[in-house]
Amino acid sequence: MALREFLVSQYQKQGWTVISDSSESNAVRPKGWTGSFPDLVAVKGSQKLAISIETPESLTGDAVKKKWKSILGNAGYSLLIVVRDKKTSELATQTAKKIGMDYVTIT
Question: What is the pTM of this model?
Fold first, then answer.
């Protein structure tokens, strides 16, 4: 099972509504969403997560920085960055700091 599908399954089991452009979900993008769309959006009550799955390759260059800033431009959403290993987690943390993100959750 791919990481994206695993995350969808786990969030749904916990009662979250999960939206993904690549899933077979009938859910539509949240109303008023602007800019880049993350890999997943999970909503449960007032909690709103924008989930971005990153790899070492996706963390190089300026594209990821622009994507994260664009995602965070949507009010009310927290950005959760998902990586597969400690080295990629460290790279994601460094990238977040470079663009002035004071707080980001990396798992």
Answer: 0.87
